[in-house]
Amino acid sequence: MSDFLTGIAFFLIIEGLVYALAPSILKRMAEMLPQIPESQLRASGLVAVALGVAMVWFIRGA
């Protein structure tokens, strides 16, 4: 459970840095989001999940 909470903490740190360091870029990306097809968003999300799972698997295996 502590690993899960640590992962959430890292997520919050990274998200906070994006908002703090590049708010204008984040706003522009949010404006472009409705123009991206749902299938592309879904595929990108699945790729991100797969990469995350692979990273955890490799890190835990080491």
TrEMBL record:
Keyword line: Membrane, Transmembrane, Transmembrane helix
Protein name (database record): DUF2065 domain-containing protein
Natural source organism: Shinella granuli
Membrane spanning residue stretches: 39-59
Pfam families cross-referenced by the UniProt entry: DUF2065
Domain of life: Bacteria
